[in-house]
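Long-time lurker, first post. I've been practising inverse folding by hand and with some scripts of my own, and I keep getting stuck on stretches where the structure tokens seem ambiguous. Below is the full token string for one chain I'm working on. Before anyone asks, I'm not after the true native sequence, just a reasonable design that respects the backbone. If someone could post their per-position residues I'd love to compare against what I wrote down in my notebook.
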């Protein structure tokens, strides 16, 4: 009996020693990795230029992280029942034309001066559908380390939902249909000139959707 007890005690001590050895090895590797990352970041070697793409593995991991984050944070959002309201869609069309087309394009607009320099490339929302909950969350909160701003800092939820409503109708819309709905959109004093709208003449100004010459 004593022999068995001593054997079990020795086995327990051996297992404990093996576990501690692996724990120490893991901690040492973690320390080396942390120091390596610190040296890499501190050296300035990492290229943050927008025209220098991520490594494929980095890009893939960021894509997964972004997708999971959007799914998690937008899951509790309740979509309003009036997204098909024509007036809501009309308001959203004006907002989209004023704020979004330089990055996300529009029917008949294949590129912009700004878009080629963006990384990662924003989706062409005239060709892809977006879940309304995800669209609302992204428009309101933006996305870190991208060109997507948090419009919720300057726009209320009702306005953001109008943009979401318009996005549900945008894919498949013809250039003529797009221009028609933008032309009918209500004027917004807080927005700049809408895509396709007339710019004021030098010295002039705009208000209420009308352009006036300078005095």
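-- Answer (accepted) --
I ran through it position by position. Result:
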């Amino acid at each position: 009996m004593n022999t068995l007890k001593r054997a079990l005690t020795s086995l327990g001590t051996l297992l404990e020693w093996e576990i501690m050895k692996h724990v120490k090895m893991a901690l040492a590797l973690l320390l080396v990795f942390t120091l390596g990352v610190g040296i890499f970041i501190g050296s300035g070697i990492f290229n943050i230029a927008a025209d220098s793409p991520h490594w494929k593995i980095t890009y893939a991991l960021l894509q997964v992280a972004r997708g999971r984050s959007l799914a998690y944070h937008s899951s509790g959002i309740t979509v309003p029942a009036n997204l098909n309201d024509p007036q809501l869609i009309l308001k959203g069309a004006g907002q989209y034309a004023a704020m979004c087309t330089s990055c996300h394009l529009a029917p008949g607009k294949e590129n912009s001066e700004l878009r080629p320099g963006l990384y990662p490339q924003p989706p062409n929302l005239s060709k892809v559908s977006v879940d309304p909950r995800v669209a609302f969350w992204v428009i309101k909160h933006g996305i870190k380390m991208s060109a997507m701003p948090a419009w919720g800092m300057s726009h209320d939820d009702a306005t953001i939902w109008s943009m979401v409503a318009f996005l549900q109708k945008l894919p498949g819309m013809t250039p003529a249909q797009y221009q028609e709905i933008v032309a009918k959109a209500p004027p917004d004093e807080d927005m700049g000139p809408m895509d396709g709208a007339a710019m004021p003449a030098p010295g002039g100004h705009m208000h209420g959707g009308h352009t006036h010459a300078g005095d």
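A couple of notes from the structure itself: The beta strands are 205-207, 210-212. The helical segments are 2-43, 56-74, 86-99, 101-104, 132-141, 157-169, 175-184. Happy to go over any region you disagree with.
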